[in-house]
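Hi C.,

You asked whether I'd gotten around to modeling the 145-residue construct. I have! Everything is below, sequence then structure, no commentary in between.
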Amino acid sequence: MTTVTFHFNVANRLDYVRRLARKEQAAGARSVVVADADTLEQLDSDLWLTATTDFLPHCRDMAPPRVRARSPLVLTSGVPSGPAADVLINLSDAIPQGVESFDRVIEVVGLDPQERSAARQRWRQYAAEKLELLQFDAGGRSTTE
């Protein structure tokens, strides 16, 4: 069953996603980040500009299948077909299609009131699907609901 964790009170979502993706890769997990085109462009650029020792191998969803198959992190505006991934990191306002094919979904929620409102709606949708829901306060405490 898919577990959905909402990471909320995130001050800088892109920095947070880079740290999450690095942590997942270190644990041997393959991840997919879903976001709008502008956010993906910024994240892709930020990933390329990191220090050599902090570089996180990644590709966009339009990369050739052999590249996507070898990449521990795929950036996409929708859930890509192809090799399975373990973790979906969602930066979009909607629930991506196919979330049930992931072991874990991480919803990254910033401080913006509209973003928080959209996250509450996604929480209700996940709850209606009877998925396991967890919360993690980026300020340091975690709870289960």
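If it helps when you're writing up: The first strand starts at residue 3 and ends at 8.

Thanks,
B.
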